[in-house]
């Protein structure tokens, strides 16, 4: 989002830098076609390439993942068809081994102007971004500007924080009451062991400092996108100038499960993580919510959000239980994968390890070291499945330039099936898992007497003289239909 009106107050030189940055950087338009792989830097790959270095699934400490480690494994990410990565926050963290562990995740800042040396050097970070760019992969950095952290809530070392080195830059201590939005914005997250002191983002001096920091960090390392941590915990009208300062596409974390609360954030940033889909879909895939209810929630997003194609479509992340802890049924895990990539309600985001069906539940168990899997890419993993899904999405976007912006629509043709219609594609997913009986599903509105292909099973059907296609869904596995003519050259089926 570029807010032209914010420029008029800037001195000419700053204006020039801002425009120069924006002409280089990646816009929402450029991000729409991307597919993001979310990397937890400490847990993805080590500089030494080890596949045996210990990292207990219960570990709350640093395990040794690094920016060099990611750089050396970019081919693994690219091989699944991802065209962007989101990495952990890069800034310096509190060094302590607290009662709640270490800041390996990156959400306990101490110094915004220094890097987290556990992940490598400035040269390593620049090298990662350059290497990603050479492979056509964007890099999204995670901004944490809502708070700083401290080990203990007595005797906070305010002077030790950079650059907001005085208590006067912070809201007075009160613990967040999530039912009260003012409290969510002005009180403190965390607890007495690791309080997250809430930055006073109502103070104009603080706002200037944070905006300059955003401009500097993005430009210095050449980042292409900004993930906005705790977006719900800062007043909405703080964000437009911050987003403009980054000069890149932004996606915020506003943890709301309903369109009415979530969508308004899109007026202040380019996109938000699609928590409404994630929550309803997890409920549906675990049987506690009907597919009709999921379809309604998805349609609400389309009608209430400014542009659903710029949301973030995800089923796993660092704050939620892995899908393989919700269900061990491979059909359900494939369904979650297909929904992530082809929901139509956002830019796909796959959390590292979803392709290996890692099965941890709450943090830190959902943050296992990926290197302990040995990075297999074969049919026992979801790696080739993600490659197919991403390949299909890229191919239909390329062969039909209206696909990405086409409004999706959702319905529940049976109690256990959701249909997703978008442009000249159709997806069916089931919440019954492998035990689902075979069923024939008929969709309308296709070109007449034309071959459509399920790219996941390669079953082909010819539409009738009225544009109906009847396809078979078996074993609860997703069906993803596209026109055969649109798949030429894709290598699919
Ligand atoms: C960016 O921040 C670094 C400190 O992290 C500082 O050395 C540098 O001068 C800043 N650059 C600009 C253009 O403000
Ligand atoms: C909401 O939180 C704010 C900030 O802590 C507080 O001043 C206000 O009284 C709270 N409102 C209610 C209704 O509790």
TrEMBL record:
UniProt entry tagged with the keyword Nucleotide-binding: no
Catalytic activity: Endohydrolysis of (1->4)-alpha-D-glucosidic linkages in polysaccharides containing three or more (1->4)-alpha-linked D-glucose units
Enzyme Commission code: 3.2.1.1
Segments crossing the lipid bilayer: none
Active site as annotated: 229, 253
Domain (Glycosyl hydrolase family 13 catalytic) ranges: 38-393
GO biological process, one term: carbohydrate catabolic process
Essential cofactor(s): Ca(2+)
Principal EC category: hydrolase
One annotated GO molecular function: calcium ion binding
Positions contributing to substrate binding: 108, 147, 227, 319, 367
Positions of the record's site feature: Transition state stabilizer: 319
InterPro entries linked to this entry: A-amylase-like, A_amylase_C_dom, GH, GH13_cat_dom, Glyco_hydro_b
Family per similarity comment: Belongs to the glycosyl hydrolase 13 family.
Protein name, as recorded: alpha-amylase
Source organism per UniProt: Gymnopus androsaceus JB14
């Amino acid at each position: 989002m570029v807010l032209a009106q914010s420029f008029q107050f800037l001195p000419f030189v700053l204006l020039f830098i801002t425009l120069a940055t924006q002409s280089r950087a990646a816009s929402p338009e450029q991000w729409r076609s991307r597919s993001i792989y979310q990397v937890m830097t400490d847990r993805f790959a080590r500089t030494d390439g080890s596949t045996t270095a210990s990292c207990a699934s219960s570990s709350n400490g640093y395990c040794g993942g690094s920016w060099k480690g990611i750089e050396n494994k970019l081919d693994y990410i690219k091989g699944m068809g991802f065209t962007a990565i989101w990495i952990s926050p890069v800034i310096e963290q509190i060094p302590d081994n607290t009662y709640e562990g270490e800041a390996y995740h990156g959400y306990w800042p101490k110094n915004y102007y220094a890097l987290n040396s556990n992940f490598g050097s400035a040269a390593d970070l620049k090298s990662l971004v350059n290497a990603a760019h050479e492979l056509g992969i964007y890099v999204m950095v995670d901004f944490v500007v809502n708070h700083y952290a401290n080990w203990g809530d007595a005797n906070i070392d305010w002077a030790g924080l950079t650059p907001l080195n005085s208590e006067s830059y912070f809201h007075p201590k009160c613990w967040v009451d999530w039912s009260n939005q003012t409290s969510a914005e002005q009180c403190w997250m965390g607890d007495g062991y690791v309080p997250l002191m809430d930055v006073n983002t109502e103070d104009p001096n603080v706002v200037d400092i944070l905006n300059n920091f955003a401009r500097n960090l993005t430009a210095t390392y050449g980042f292409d996108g900004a993930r906005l941590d705790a977006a719900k915990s800062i007043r909405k009208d703080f964000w437009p100038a911050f987003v403009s300062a980054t000069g890149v596409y932004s996606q915020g974390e506003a943890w709301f499960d309903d369109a009415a609360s979530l969508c308004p954030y899109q007026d202040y940033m380019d996109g938000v993580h699609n928590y409404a889909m994630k929550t309803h879909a997890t409920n549906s895939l675990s049987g506690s919510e009907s597919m009709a209810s999921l379809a309604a929630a998805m349609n609400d997003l389309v009608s209430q959000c400014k542009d659903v194609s710029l949301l973030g479509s995800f089923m796993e992340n660092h704050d939620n239980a892995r899908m393989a802890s919700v269900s061990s049924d491979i059909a359900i895990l494939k369904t979650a994968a297909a929904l992530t990539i082809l929901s139509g309600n956002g830019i796909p985001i796959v959390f590292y390890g979803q392709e290996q069906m890692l099965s941890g539940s709450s943090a830190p168990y959902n943050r296992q070291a990926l290197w302990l899997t040995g990075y297999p890419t074969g049919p026992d993993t979801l790696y080739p499945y993600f490659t197919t899904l991403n390949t299909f999405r890229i191919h239909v976007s390329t062969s039909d330039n209206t696909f990405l912006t086409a409004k999706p629509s959702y319905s529940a043709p049976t109690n256990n099936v959701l249909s997703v219609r978008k442009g000249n594609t159709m997806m069916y997913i089931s919440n019954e898992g492998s035990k689902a009986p075979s069923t024939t599903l008929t969709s309308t509105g296709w070109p007449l007497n034309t071959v459509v292909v399920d790219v996941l099973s390669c079953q082909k059907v010819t539409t009738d003289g009225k544009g109906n296609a009847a396809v078979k869904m078996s074993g609860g596995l997703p069906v993803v239909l596209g026109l055969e003519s649109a798949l030429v050259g894709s290598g699919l089926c």
